Amino acid sequence: MGKLIIHSTLLCVSLIEFILFVPVCISARTSSSSSGKRVPAIIVFGDSSVDSGNNNFIPTMARSNFEPYGRDFFGGFPTGRFSNGRIPPDFISEAFGLKPCVPAYLDPAYNISDFAVGVCFASAGTGYDIATSNVAGVIPLWKEVEYYKEYQEKLRSHVGTDKANEIIREALYLVSAGTNDFLENYYTMPERQLEFTVEEYEDFLIGLADKFLRGLYDLGARKVSLTGVPPMGCLPLERTINILDNHGCVEKYNNVALEFNGKLGQLVKKLNKELPGFQLIDANAYDFVLQIITQPSRFGFEDAGVGCCGTGRFEMGFMCDPNSPFTCPDANKYVFWDAIHPSAKTSQLVSNYLIQTHLSQFL
């Protein structure tokens, strides 16, 4: 239960913050157009690595819509992103000439005219395994797909069937999930460990990923970027509790990440071969993220062992107390923002890497 509490959050953004934030994001999001672009929209599925605030609007403790989260976002207000600023879909959207922030589908401040060029269905705390989403009561992946189906209907009503089908077909879909399946579920809760060895659980997740991606294909998606898991043994929280190894990276977790990512890569090859017209990209950033963590000064960072928020060793979500005297003054010096999630600077570096090495074919 200890990790579950650490990996959860409470508190909501105040009404004043919400009112002040909305105009900032509206002005940012209406400054660009999708007309004539090869990628007319960015559509996002997954977990907290890509959630732009959907959890704000469901009954869960897994939220980050309060300070100091968002302090480096537009206007300096928390949005539900687990970051001090923007997250990868935001940077990727901007790089493709679209909006500099991708809105959360459940956010009532937005409507279908906003979502037509970018929408996020992701939910912090979710995974491929429905048992993972049950841990913190968040949106399971199947429900994200149901919201996407609802979005398609709204889009067709808004721009017409032909235009909507074009957007659906030409949009770039970003999928990022898997870390919670291991850290929040398999290694924390007993059920799956009794049912599977870790290798068997990896295969179980691959089967679920296969079904999910085929489902997206059947709904019209053709350009999909699939991101695996990072060096999860090097997350500050995992290093904090790795006392016996002098707070080094937990190599067991990193090895699982490598093995799982390898299986995802094989799945990508399989689906591209079996599904006509599918352009599924194996957007594996494991090695690049590990470089940042092991050689932080090379990328302009001063610390990769702890996060900026609080002591940086175990805080995430509600434990990132806005009144903590330990929170760092400059998140750009830290690879991680909290004990799990990267800083906005790291997210931008990783996004640039993925664009240059994996997504440039869509530009």
What's the average pLDDT?
91
Shape descriptor reads globular
Looking at CATH, which topology would you report?
Rossmann fold
Biggest beta sheet summary: 5 strands, parallel
As for the number of domains, it is 1
User: CATH first level: which class?
Assistant: Alpha Beta
The DSSP helix count reads 14
Quote the beta fraction: 5-15%
Percent of residues in helices: 40-55%
Number of strands: 7
Order of H and E elements: HHEHHEHHHEHHHEHHEHEEH
Q: Order of strands in the sheet with the most strands?
A: 2-1-3-4-5
C-alpha Rg (nearest Å): 19 Å
CATH architecture: 3-Layer(aba) Sandwich
Oligomerization: single chain
In whole angstroms, how far apart are the ends?
Answer: 45 Å
Structural class from helices and strands? alpha/beta
Low-confidence stretches: 1-25, 27-33
Description:
α3 crosses α14 (344-359), α6 (141-159) packs across α7 (161-170) and α10 packs parallel to α12 (251-274). 43% of the residues lie in helices and 8% in strands. By secondary structure, the chain is an alpha/beta fold. The chain has a single domain (2-235, 247-291), classed as Rossmann fold (3-Layer(aba) Sandwich), CATH 3.40.50. The chain has a five-stranded parallel beta sheet with strand order 2-1-3-4-5, sandwiched between helices. The protein has a two-stranded parallel sheet with strand order 6-7. The longest helix is centred in the C-terminal third of the chain and has 24 residues, at 251-274.
List keywords for this structure.
43% helix, Rossmann fold, two-stranded parallel ribbon, alpha/beta, globular, single chain, 363 residues, 5-stranded parallel β-sheet, disordered N terminus
